[in-house]
Amino acid sequence: MNRRGMVVIGAGPAGLAAAIAAKQQGIGDVLVVEREDYAGGLLHQCIHDGFGLHRFREELTGPEYAERYIAMARKEEIEILTGTGVLDILESDGGKRLYMLSERRGLIEVEARAVVLAMGCREKNRGNVNIPGSRPAGIMTAGLAQRMVNLEGYLPGREIVILGSGDIGLIMARRMTWEGARVRAVVEIQPYPGGLNRNIVQCLNDFHIPLYLSHSITDIRGDSRLEAVEISPIDAGREPRDRGRFVVPCDTLLLSVGLVPENELSLKAGVELDPVTQGPVVDSSLMTSVEGIFACGNVLHVHDIVDYVSEDAEICGITAARFVRGGLDRGSEVEVRAGNLVRYVLPSRVRSGEGARLSLRPILPAENAVLTVKDGDEVLYRRKYRKVYPSGMLRVPVPRVPEHSGRLEVGFTLAPEGSGAPDGESGSDSFGGEAGSEAV
Amino acid sequence: MDRRNPGMSVTLICIVCPVGCELTVSHDDERIIEVRGARCGRGGEYAEREVFHPERIVTTTVRIRRASVPLVPVRTSRAIARNRTFEVLEQASQLWCTAPVRAGQVLSTDIAGTGADLVATRALEEVPPPHSG
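^ inputs. structure came back:
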C-alpha cells in the first residue's frame, strides 16, 4: 500500500499551487494525480494573454502561467502522476483510501491523511440551457472548440454563431476569426455582456462582430449539419418576442453559457455541496464537510481570474498540511451569510479572533454599491464600489472577526448617485486596486 | 473600430489591463488634447496609441514535429500594429518547428516585418515517434 501525507486531485493551477504550498510546509510525499498526460490543466488551451497580472505583475499567456507553476513544482520535486483518473475516495483507518486508474499502471490504491480536491469545472452544454430545435452536428461548447483549435489543430467550422458573452466566448470569437472563420453573431440573453470590457473591444469590436444583448437563440435548424439559428429579442420577463426575430445561417454554434464545478467525485466521497456555487461547503481552512477532504480552485466555486485560484489554493495547501501534521485547530468559528444582493459568499464559516478573506459575487450589476460586512449591528468592513457585476468576483478582507461574534452578514446597499463615498477606502472601485487578470 | 473624428472626442475602453477604464479622449488629426477617465498613467499612453496607431499582442499556434501534441502555442514578443495581425497569423500558419522547444524560445524573428519575434509559450519535450522500429 502506497501511503502519503496528502493527495491532490488535479494538476491544474489550483492543484499545483496547493501541492507546492503543502510541500513547502513539510509534506514531503505530496502526490498530485492528473487525468491528462501533462500538468497545467485548462491553461494550456488558453493561449491568449492576460493571465498573471495580479500574481506575477506581468501579462502572461495561459501556457506561460502554467509553465511558471510547473517549474516551481519541478523545483520542489513534487511527484505528479499523469494519465491517471481518481475513481473513488473512501474512509480508511489511516485517513482516506483513493482508488485510481491509469492506462500504464492499471488500478492504483493510495492511502492519504488528507485529500485536496482540485478537479476544476466544466462547461454547461446545450442540455443545460434547453435550446429548442433539431440536433445536427456543429454545436459544441466554446471550450471544446478552443481545445480543438489550440491543442489539436482542427477548425470546427467556418460560419460561427456564439451563444453567451462570457470571456471564453469572446476569446473564441477572436480566435476563430484569426483562424479564418467568420463569426456572424454573439448572442447574450442578459442586457449586459458577461465578459470583460477589454474583451468586448479586442475580441469583438476589432473585427466588427455584432453583439446582440437581450437576445437568445430560439431555434436550431439543420439536418446532419447545423444550417442556421434563429435569434429572438428577449423581453423584461425573459420571454422571447416575435418582433425583431431573425435567422443567421451558420455551420457551427459555440456555447459559452457558464461553468459548473466538477464534483462527481466529491459527491461520491460524501462531501456536502452548496446549491448556489455547486461546489463544496467549506470552513475557513477550506476543509469540506468531510474531515480531511479540502477543496480549492474552480471545483470550489468558479473563479474569473486564475491568479486568485492560485492564491486560494496556496492557502488550502497550507491548511491541509497543518491538518496532516495534526495541528489544524478548528477553533471557534462563525457563520458567514450572503445578505442583500449577494449571490454567494465563501467561505461559509470563518474563525473568530482572526482576520479573514471573503470571496463573493453580486446578484445583479449595480452602480454605487456599498458593501458591508456586519456582525449584528457592528460594521466590520465597508467599501464603496463604483460598479459591480455578477461576472466580477469581489474579494474583501475582514480585518478581525470579533471573538464574541454571532454571525457575519455580507450585503450591499445602493447609494444614490452623487452621494459622498462612505467610510472605508474612498474612491476605491470594484476592480481597481486589485486588478487581476483574465478568466481561464 | 476607427472612431477618429477630427477635433472631436471619442470614447474608448482601455484594454491595457482587466479593469477596462472608459476613456473620454479629445484629439485632433495629429495629437491627443485630453484623456479623461483613466485610473492609471497607462490609460493616456493607450489612448494615444489606440487613436493614431492601434497595437495588439497576437497569440496563435505553430505546428511542431516530434512532440506529444501537434501544436506549440506562440505569442508576438511585443504588441504589433493591429492592421498587420493577419499577415503575422498567415506567416505563423506556414511555420514548422521541431521538439524540444523551450518556453520563451524564438521560433521566428521579425515576423512579417513587424519587428516582433514569434516566441513559444509552452515547453515541449521530444518524444519518440509512435511507430518507430
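The mean pLDDT of chain B is 89. Residues 12 and 23 of chain B are 5 Å apart (CA to CA).
thumbs up if we can close this ticket
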